[in-house]
Design a protein that fits this description.
With about 400 residues, the protein is mainly alpha-helical. It is built from 18 helices and 3 strands. A 3-stranded antiparallel beta sheet has the order 1-2-3. A hairpin with a 3-residue loop joins β2 and β3. The longest helix has 24 residues. The chain starts with a strand and ends in a 12-residue tail after the last helix.
Amino acid sequence: MILPVGDSPNPRGIAWVNWTLIVLNVAVFLSLWPLAFRPADPRDPDFERYVHALVEDGRVRVADVPRLVRRVSAYDLFTYRHGFRPAHPSLLAALTGMFLHGGWAHLLGNMLFLWIYGDNVEARLGRLGYLLAYLGTGLAAAGGDLLLRHGSDIPAVGASGAISGVLGLYFLWFPLNRVRLWVWLFPFFADVIELPARFVLAMYLLVDNLLPVLLTGGKAGGVAYGAHIGGFVAGLALAWLLDRHWLHRPEVARTRPPDVPAAATLPRAFREALSAGRLEEAAAMLFDLPRQVTRQGLGPWEKIRLGDALAAAGHPRAALAAYQRALADHPRGPGRARAHLGAARVLMDRLGFPTAAYQHLYQALEEDPDPAEEAEARELLGKLAHRTRSVPRRLPRSD
């Protein structure tokens, strides 16, 4: 048995929207669960439709229908009416289906994943942004279910599609976090181990979802694989789009750059503007000119120096964008450790995102930093330990 039991680092404070979603899911389940012990009314028109859907989907043999008829509960019919059925898709059913669950194990498993991964994503997006992302990726998950189970009248219920969207966001934004897994291989091994978050989530996507779809067409076990895959892909896409928006629209007042026809003339103009303290003009050269021009015309150190100047001038978001442009435009070579450290300091000290800063600190230590850079990274990690609830056990260069 392998069960996730936590992750690190975690932001301090209460993730209000995440906890509200957990409470709401549990409350809806508890309020409806008594229906599971009440027999369904055979005269209900949905009774026959539900039984027919199970037979058509191959989940019940015709010979077993009499036994099924005796076991259908009022809760079964409730989920049939309000779950998402690809044969009769609706946005309302996609929304209500997110808050229905098939049983205790289904509910508790989903809430465990939401509790582990949701707080970091909420801290990154903010409360309203997180709520909109949760609901939006949940609706996208219904679209994935529709594609994979087109024409099926079996309802899909559960928060797992929306939670998969949260996992997709987490996958892109917190790849270097560590997930704690309780591993029990009776009778040989029982312990809690830490693995990289990106590895754990990749296994969730590949082993738990894509592989079953390839082997069975997604029709085995009553699991909405299409919803899981659709939600995860939607979360990835949303994180990617937000990152692009962040890189291309940093929050700093900018004047239009001078006409720079060639990359060869850009470094001199950029350095002159930066030396003269014309930060808006220098920022415009980096952010408003075509990427192919700035990638060739400005080296990593020019972008890092602009980030340092913008941070000192009180423009943390623009400074972060400058550091990130240095990293994105120059995936190898000098300056990467310094760019990661600049991004980490802005995220931790100016923007209040310590768990996002951890991603850059980890990578700075993996970039073979010089002694001064390594000392700065260790100093920031010490501060991070006081601003988060936990830090991973293992860090680069810790041996």
